[in-house]
Design goal:
Helix content is about 70%, strand content about 0%. The radius of gyration is 23 Å and the shape is flat. The C terminus is likely disordered. By secondary structure, the protein is mainly α. A two-stranded antiparallel ribbon has the order 1-2. Helix 6 packs antiparallel against helix 7 and helix 6 crosses helix 10.
Amino acid sequence: MVRVPNVTRADAQAAVRNPLAFIAARWTPDPRTVRRAALAALVMSVVIVVTGGAVRLTGSGLGCPTWPKCTDDSIAATREMGLHGVIEFGNRLLTYVLCAAVGWAIVAARSQKPFRRSFTRLGWAQFWLVMGNAVLGGIVVLVGLNPYTVAAHFLLSSALIAVATVMWQRTREGDGEPRPLVGKAVQQLVWFMVAASVLLIVVGTVVTGAGPHAGDSSEVERMPLDWETVSKLHAVLAWIVVTLTFALWFVLKAVDAPQGPLHRTRELFVVLLAQGVIGYVQYFTDLPEVLVALHMLGSCVMWIWVVRVLLSLRERPEAATAGVPGPAPEATLTA
């Protein structure tokens, strides 16, 4: 039986003063644990988007009519609030699960040896994005599901997914200077694709803001735009992204690029085709809630793969000083 070491008063004071450094001094996760922690944060960032969409699609957006409490007198949903209150409050509770996943990623990154400051900062960036989005989600409720705040809520979630994807990718890389695997022309083509993808997501939030799924059964403000016209613009942008992706795959094959960029581009192309099928079916079947939810999930997966394609264009070897021990955990109080 392993003997548990005694915790001295100095240990307790160190844990209170800097708990991350205290944990890092006594635990070194293996690379698989760090990858799993980063992946858990990424998965939860997608789950919170999909469940948030479920809140809107079931008309539960104001199931809890105020924030941060569910009602003026109760922090949780009450029986009188019915199913809508349960759904909305359940989505709020998932924010704590997301925080736990991001917290685990931060602890694992901070405890990794050697210490990687830039890697740990990616975890903290996710934390602050989650906090910002939680406050923005409260504002969405307080302003009665104003469509512009709902759009901002989704876009901030997309930023969280992008950072989580980068952190997950960095678990497989070192901290050396990035080395490009393709030429400048190919990199520029990918950046055009990324820009078109961002525009596609932004216009997608406008489609949502002008569309029929307002998020609540009562009268909710919608964006003063023709929904069908915006939907057609969204479809045009989707075809532009598909075309750029196919062109990228063709160029990568022509220049005999490494397998990494080729595989990520081919995977993105498949994701885009599946997302397009769902999009057209939901359009011609009057937006059934299940297909809209699948389309939101597809949007998240598409965005993850766009970021993965961008990251696949370079490699990051271990830094030259990787074998040199980093600062003592107790001394790094700001990490």
